[in-house]
Amino acid sequence: MSSILSNEDDQIVAEPSVKKEYAATESVPHNGARNLGFIDMIATWIGANANNGTWYVGGVVAGAAFGGAIACTLIANPIAYLFMALVGYMGYKAGTSTMALTRPSFGIRGSFLPTLVNITSFIGWTAVNTFIAAISVSFLLKESFGWPAFGQAGSTKSMVVGILIMSVLHLISISLGHHSVKVIERVGMILVAVLGIWETIVVLQNVSLTQILAWHPKASLSLPFGTAMDTMAAFSLGWIPAIAEFTRYTKKKTSATVAPMIGANIGLFWFAFVGIIATIGAAIASGTFDPNNSDPSSIASKLGLGWVALIVIVVTSTTANAVNLMAGGISLTNIAKKVKPMAALWIVTLLAILLTFVPLFFGSFLDSFIAFLDYIGMVLGPMIGIMVTDFFLVRKRSYDVAAFTQKNGKYWYTSGFHWQAILTWIIGIVLFLLLHNLDFFKNSIGATYPVIVLSALIYWAIAKRSK
Length: 467
Prior knowledge:
The chain has one domain (36-374): Hydantoin permease. The longest helix is centred in the N-terminal third of the chain and has 34 residues, at 112-145. The chain starts with a helix and ends with a helix. The chain is built from 20 helices and no strands. By secondary structure, the chain is mostly helical.
């Protein structure tokens, strides 16, 4: 008997354990080893999205003014999370990690290419969130010891200490794999709710909604709507390669599809909204709008939110990075089979710590952040289009998980590479580079989603012709 069920039945007999952290290509049995329910998945994806990174991206798209920022948030993100639900279902059905799910479409060895991209992506996300949280720590150190905070002369010492403190918290957060992530996300969801409500009230007490609605940035600082769409799309699409790392542990289909969409949309809408109104509110109060200073800590300081807000920003960074590190670590086991899952989590965490120091010494953080988002949209968009098309349209929702690791098996193709998918991926990247800076796409829908659709259609056409 082919496919998923036979493979799962074998593993149910062999090793059903709720304590085990499964490697990328190991299929988590449906009975005995799945312990994430509907509420767990809602909490996980609220915690992943209601954090300082979401606030920061909300502050960046505030350059499109309130109406444009809200519109791109309400349009770009639900589309991204619909794709996330589709890949979440793939993980639920197969029981493997997201990067293992690229093996049928890209080939067993070909999957190493998106895996490398994925590892660098999640290391990058961890570094971004850690840096933003370190800014909060620098403000706390200023209040406690008088050290210069981020943006002030001599703040490097505060930022280094902040990065080290955050790094310790991240190591604790992944110490027990997905079990510790589960606990952290439940606690984080409560803190996030308190902070989100409080900060929304404080912002609106300082600046009226009428003022926020009427505000527009200077022409030189305005953000085209299509660029804002690409920014938001890349931010949310970045979570998709992490989804199966969790849905493979879910008991029911709705926990793998509906729950992540609910949690991700709530978390993102809420904190992007807070980031948008807080950044605009600070611009109105100070008379200047500077996207470089749209990080939560700088805004919280300008609005007088106090040290409690800074501490919660630190906590929410830990909840988001627990998901990033989990995804990056398990992805590593897709290309390095001899590395145990927990060892992979530690390796990825240490690499992320090193990367976090880069913005301190090279260029502005905003420039690094925007360049990183462009990279995410460019490489992940076509990859996601290919994955979803392969599973739902080409393979008719049926993967043979046992063949995921079989040399010369059905997913081996040409020396382990499925060149049709790799060629489509390259075409998708080129299309993004061509469309991204065209005025039509910059001022309307952006390039990310058109490229996903085009990549999916190209791959589907090639796959149909090769049959």
